[in-house]
Amino acid sequence: MASTTLNDLPDVILSNIIAAVSDVRSRNSSALVCRKWYLLERATRSALTLRGNLRDLFMVPTCFTSISHLDLSLLSPWGHPLTSASDPALIGHVLRHAFPSVTSLTLYARNPSTIQLIAPQWPFLEHVKLVRWHQRPQIAAAGDELNILISECGKLNSLDLSAFYCWTDDVPPALESYPSIASNLTCLNLLNPSFSEGFKSDEIKVITKACSNLREFRAACMFDPRYIGYVGDEALVSVSVNCPKLAILHLADTSALSNARGDPEDEGFTQEDAKINVATLIEVFSGLPLLEELALDVCNNVRMSGPALEVLNSKCPKLRSLKLGQFHGISLPVESKLDGVALCQRLESLSIRNVADLTDMGLIAIARGCCRLAKFEVQGCKMITVKGVRTMASLLRRTLVDVKISCCKNLGAVQSLKALEPIQDRIESLHIDCIWDCTTEDLEDLDGFDLNSFDQGEISNRLVERTAKHFTGSDYDYDGMGSASKKCRYSYDLNSSYTGVDVNSNGYENGNGYGERTWEKLRYLSLWVAVGQLLTPLASSGLENCPNLEEIRIKIEGDCRELPKPAVREFGLSTLVNYPKLSKMHLDCGDTIGYAHTAPSGQMDLSLWERFYLIGVGHLSLTELDYWPPQDRDVNQRSLSLPAAGLLQECFSLRKLFIHGTAHEHFMMFLLRIHDLRDVQLREDYYPAPENDMSTEMRADSCSRFEAALNRRQISD
């Protein structure tokens, strides 16, 4: 009997199978099987990112005629305008011929001429994302660049300017100049951190009036009432009146987009209150019945917001994601009565930042009411503790898989991991702050906390019973003999492991105890580390066993100039060898500030700090690495140093390396010693990117020489 292979399937089924493959290397591999698979793979590929050099037009692929989304923002040399080539018109002609079906385009638009060159090539573009990290050209009048784009793209329905360095004055005039196209827009993203002040009230009104059919609107705003034209009640109401079809609304103050870490000791209240009252919020929510995702990150106090948030549950029945910043009074339960955001029972994602009056009881009430939460982020909430987070994790054990805990005074690394033990076998994505100041005495203070008790205002038996019944949909025999296994779910003892049950073959207890510290499903880990602190205690703090961890992001922040030379030789990257599947790393030292050149006596310059942080990176089996060098703000320099280049060349398993800064050409040549390295690029993707490279750093010719040397090598696979 002849065996049946995958190739024997009908073309329609095989085509659907190949179309479902998202990994680029897997798709490339499938195209090498036979000509039939090659044709099916090319016919079903819908997105492509070009990474080649502008000088090598003959290498533009012509077999991807079905591509609908084309990304031209990462062409090499990075950040150089397309019009800098010897024959710009030829570039446009070649791209249009190679990709005739493009309807979605991402473009690095260094100057207006780039938009003028590319936009006419695809007149039926529906989605456009413009990218620019360099400063806006001073020669362009307000709105000129967007006028060029909109005039050439009559079918445009989605415009993304979230990474496009421009002025807020550029947007309203362009939209008003083409009212018919503006009214066709369904998606507008203006959530740009480069704006110095954000959009003001009058500008928000103009934009929403011109784009009345928006279903997705994101914008950076000025909520601070100390500034003229601040966004307040009137502007928020205009959004709901002008754009009643909104499904996604994200309004954030520009200071919230900087990702600057706050002070954990801060009380959470700002000096000024936002000019937004509860009645306005209720009116806005009532006018947006189709809302599915809402983010209001105001950065000024919005007090007693609970009643407005209660309206969300009834007025916005489709709401699944909610993000709030500087909203106070979001959950103030009295006894066991739920209020505020806890009544939004359909939420699947909740992010809260700088909620000054959020306590453990409020957090537990949120867990009781929002029983479908799969993602939870909390930042800058000083009053919550391990007890509240652990109780919340217990109540949401069936759904919660993505957690971020940041800048909370009582939740360092050890405390956060202790609090999340109830879901350690389920969580898939995690962010914590690497603060190692938790002592044994701190944990002993929490010993014996029992969620089944009703002492000094703790959770009552009735609350636990009601929660369990609401969560499981069944009666909860709390007082009977059959309740022993359920009761242990809520027992809390940080210094002992529940041993009244057996341990199964996977290392987990066959019950509700949490004795084994294996994070079985954790795939992504994000860490914040203060400059000068070590990564070494990470494993011993509770993350010693993460068998499926694939990706890690480490952000190091602080001022090196205020610190003495570290007492130890290395930061601790070598400790990550304990994670066998770790293959991707983002090492972000971009907010680490120091001396790029000669440091004062007794201090280290940035090259020595880079060596401190990168020692041990060669021990890891990484295939992809994104690295942000530290910076010297006085000279606006983020450059790869000699020690850093020497340590990076030891990463022999790397296939992709992206350095978010500059580097000398001869330092880059060190990287050619990595045998399987396939993709390398320097990206100055930070505001503002330097206009002109230093004479000793990478220029267009230097990039071309390095890439030519890289492409000449034979890759083993």
Automatic annotation (TrEMBL):
The protein's superkingdom reads Eukaryota
- Ranges in a coiled coil: none
Pfam families per record? F-box_5 (PF18511)
Where do the COI1 F-box domain residues begin and end?
9-46
Signal peptide position in this chain?
none
Q: Which InterPro entries match?
A: COI1_F-box (IPR041567), Leu-rich_rpt_Cys-con_subtyp (IPR006553), LRR_dom_sf (IPR032675)
Extract the PANTHER family matched here: F-BOX PROTEIN MAX2, PARTNER OF PAIRED, ISOFORM B-RELATED
Name of this chain's protein? COI1 F-box domain-containing protein
Lineage in the entry?
Eukaryota, Viridiplantae, Streptophyta, Embryophyta, Tracheophyta
